[in-house]
Amino acid sequence: MKFKSINTVKLTLFIGLSLLDVGNVSYGAFRSVKSSPQRNENTVTNTFVDPIENDDSLGTKIVNFGMKLLGTPYVTAGCSKNGFDCSGFVYYVYNNFKIKVPRSSSQFENFGKEIPIADVKKGDILLFLSPTRNVIGHLGIVTNPKGMESDFIHATSGREMQVVTTSLKKPGYTRRFVKAIRVL
């Protein structure tokens, strides 16, 4: 029996999956990105994210990008480097990687794939109830996955009024935690 080389298998997978890519919609290992700074800003290409290399590489890049925004002020309805609300922060970070997510925290309730908190990875999103109502009212991005002791980065309207990292084990967040979702 003759075995194909790993590069042949990867190429075959790449070609097969590229046929699924329609209208710049992301399927599995593909995502739409700008191809280079020299091209028109609206030009997009498909970049293959090799799952064999590192499943967490995109999650790590998302976290690293978000960490560069630590200390950015909290601004109601903010969605720029001038200031963020919680969903504006998540939207801005994911949009940097051409990953479409909702702009409003309440729209995350039925978005993405729910995952057990024990299985979270860097870049997954944590959803929380509003402090005053029984609806999704806050969210953040997992930076250090440790189940119910995971750390996450978020724009808080609390005492700090800025982008911060917090532990899920902090009682105010543990009590309001609803679920973890994966969109990668």
Describe this structure in a few short sentences:
This protein has 184 residues and is an alpha+beta fold. The chain has 2 domains: 6-48, no CATH class; 57-182, endopeptidase domain like (from Nostoc punctiforme) (endopeptidase fold (from Nostoc punctiforme)), CATH 3.90.1720.10.
Report the mean per-residue pLDDT as an integer.
79
Number of strands: 10
Tally of DSSP helical segments = 4
Distance between the termini: 37 Å
Fraction of helical residues: 10-25%
Low-confidence stretches: 1-54
CATH domain class name of the largest domain: Alpha Beta
Strand content: 25-35%
H/E topology pattern:
HEEHEEHEEEEEHE
Give me the secondary-structure category: alpha+beta
CATH architecture of the largest domain: Alpha-Beta Complex
How many domains? The number is: 2
CATH topological fold name of the largest domain:
endopeptidase fold (from Nostoc punctiforme)
> Tell me about the biggest sheet?
6 strands, antiparallel
**Which sequence of strands runs across the widest sheet?**
5-10-6-7-8-9
**What would the principal axes of the Cα set say about the shape?**
globular
Our Rg estimate from Cα atoms comes to 18 Å
Strand-helix topology:
Elements: H1 6-18, E1 30-34, E2 44-48, H2 57-67, E3 79-80, E4 83-84, H3 86-96, E5 113-115, E6 125-129, E7 136-144, E8 151-155, E9 163-167, H4 171-176, E10 177-182
Antiparallel strand pairs: 1-2, 3-4, 5-10, 6-7, 6-10, 7-8, 8-9
Organism: Flavobacterium petrolei
Family: Belongs to the peptidase C40 family.
Protein name: NlpC/P60 family protein
